[in-house]
Amino acid sequence: MYHCHVYVYLLGRRHRVFEVVKDIAPLEHFTHEYMESSESEKALASKADVIIANLQGVDAKETVRELVLCKAKEAELILLAEKEQVSVLESELEGIDDLWVSPMSDEEIRFRYLKWQRDCKMRKDYWQVSTWKPRSTMFPISSGLRIKTAFMRKLTIAFARW
User: Is the bond leading into 103 cis (omega within 30 degrees of zero)?
Assistant: First the structure.
C-alpha cells in the first residue's frame, strides 16, 4: 500500500473554514501538512497539492489568475468566496476545481472537505492501480529462459577451455 503526503495551502485572511479543515483528520495512508499565508506566495502555491484560497477582502479575479499561473499543474484550487464574488469569477473558471460560497456551517465545511479527501484518495488509488504491473509482465518467462540459456552457453565454453 502507498503513503501520500498532501500539502494544503491555506491562503488569505484567517477564516473559520481554515480551523475546521485543520481539525479534520486525514484519511488512512494520508498525512496533511498545512501552510498558511495572508498574501499569495508563489513558492507555497507551487508546492501545494491543494490550495484553499479565501477571497474575502481581495481582488478575486486577480488573485485567481495569479494562483492558476503559479500553482502546480496537478494541484487543485478551491476558492472560498462570498456570494457577490461568484459572478466576477465566471470568466476565470478555467483552473478552478471547486467553489465554496460563504458563509457555511461547520457541518457543510466538514462535508465538503471530507468529500475532497475521498475524491483525492480515489485519484491516488486509481494512479497506483494504473501504474502497477504484475510481476509476470515485468519478468516474462522467456527472459528467464534466455538468461538460463546464456548462462549454460558460458558454462559450456568455460569447461571446454579447462
Answer: yes
Q: Dihedral sign for Cα 149, 151, 154, 159, please.
A: negative
> Would you say 61 and 89 are in contact if contact means Cβ atoms under 8 Å apart?
yes
Q: How far apart are CA 120 and CA 114, in angstroms?
A: 10
> What's the burial of 28, exposed, middle or buried (CB within 10 Å: 0-12/13-18/19+)?
exposed
Residue type, 106: D
Give residue-wise pLDDT tens across range 87-106.
Answer: 877 777 788 888 898 888 99
**Distance separating alpha carbons of residues 14 and 25, to the nearest angstrom:** 20
User: pLDDT tens digit string along 106-136?
Assistant: 999 999 999 999 998 888 888 777 777 665 5
Give me the helix-helix angle, 106-131 and 16-23, nearest 10°. Answer: 50
- Contact of 48 with 6, CB cutoff 8 Å: no
- Render pLDDT for 52-82 as a digit per residue (tens, 0 to 9): 999 888 888 888 888 888 888 888 999 998 8
